């Protein structure tokens, strides 16, 4: 399983969508405004569809804006949760990849910070 992208969430990520830099995804089409769906699954095997739009920003260049409102609501995501997107090979089909999204929350337990699955 290869990590594609990871970050601590901000209020903007939660409220307005998750920006994934194009450099994390390989070559994005050079068509600002192009929309597509990203099929992902979480650690429980539940499938999610994220609506994605290619956008451009002078500081980052092209990036994928991921609309994930249902996922945010269902998982009760919060500022400083850590989201990681992985790409993993499909086992049964023999070719292709799955996109897996993981979310962890830092909790303090017996004076130690640990990351728990959300």
From TrEMBL:
Give the source's domain of life in one word.
Eukaryota
Fetch the Pfam families from UniProt.
Answer: B3 (PF02362)
What CDD domains does the database record attribute to this sequence?
B3_DNA
Where does it reside? Nucleus
A molecular function GO annotation = DNA binding
> In the UniProt record, which is one GO cellular component term?
nucleus
Q: Which InterPro entries match?
A: B3_DNA-bd, DNA-bd_pseudobarrel_sf
TF-B3 domain spans which residues? 6-86
Keywords attached to this entry: DNA-binding, Nucleus, Transcription, Transcription regulation
Recorded protein name is TF-B3 domain-containing protein
Report the source organism. Answer: Salix brachista
């Amino acid at each position: 399983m290869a990590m594609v992208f990871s970050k601590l969430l901000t209020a903007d990520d939660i409220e307005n969508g998750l920006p994934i830099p194009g450099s994390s995804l390989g070559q994005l089409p050079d068509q600002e405004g192009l929309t597509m769906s990203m099929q992902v699954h979480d650690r429980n095997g539940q499938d999610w569809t994220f609506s994605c739009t290619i956008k451009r920003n002078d500081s980052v260049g092209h990036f994928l804006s991921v609309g994930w409102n249902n996922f945010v609501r269902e998982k009760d995501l919060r500022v400083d949760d850590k989201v990681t997107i992985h790409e993993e090979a499909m086992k049964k089909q023999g070719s292709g990849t799955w996109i897996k999204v993981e979310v962890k929350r830092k909790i303090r337990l017996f004076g130690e910070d640990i990351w728990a699955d959300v």
